[in-house]
Design a protein that fits this description.
Elements lengths: L19 E6 L4 E9 L5 E12 L2 E12 L4 E6 L10 E2 L2 H30 L12
Parallel strand pairs: 4-6
Antiparallel strand pairs: 1-2, 1-5, 2-3, 3-4
């Protein structure tokens, strides 16, 4: 009966080693690479890693090589199946897309900051990273 209980610790990553993985980080970056190693804290080592950025119907890849990721920064980890969605995205050079991506990121950060401020002032919610935000 115990074998039916899902294994949810970092040990469940053993089947993912040597596979191409997609990792989404807390800061919003999306990394794709081959998972080579991990530890009990879910710290990850990715090889042949690329960082992918999106803007509208386009995307660009920046090869970053070997990447060590601290486990607490991982939001999502899943197998990259190398299959495109039904929405066709057009690849463009990284240098051409980076300025638009930076502008989008800055706008999102401004929006999130103003939303957090409104939630703090009007509803009493704690600011992320502030007192009481202990993870």
């Amino acid at each position: 009966m115990d074998s039916l209980i899902p294994f949810t610790t970092s040990g469940s990553l053993v089947d993912m080693v040597d596979k191409k993985m997609l990792v989404v980080l807390r800061d919003g970056r999306k990394l794709m690479g081959v998972l080579r190693s991990y530890d009990q804290f879910a710290n990850l080592v990715l090889e042949d890693t690329i960082e992918r950025i999106y803007h509208g119907q386009t995307y660009a890849d920046d090869p970053v090589g070997l990447f060590l990721i601290r486990g607490e920064n991982v939001v999502l980890l899943g197998e990259d199946l190398d299959e495109e969605d039904e929405i066709p995205l057009k690849p463009v050079p990284y240098a051409a897309l980076k300025p638009a991506y930076v502008q989008d990121s800055a706008e999102k950060k401004r929006h999130d900051t103003s939303k957090a401020q409104a939630l703090y002032e009007q509803k009493g919610f704690c600011r992320e990273g502030g007192e009481g935000d202990g993870y």
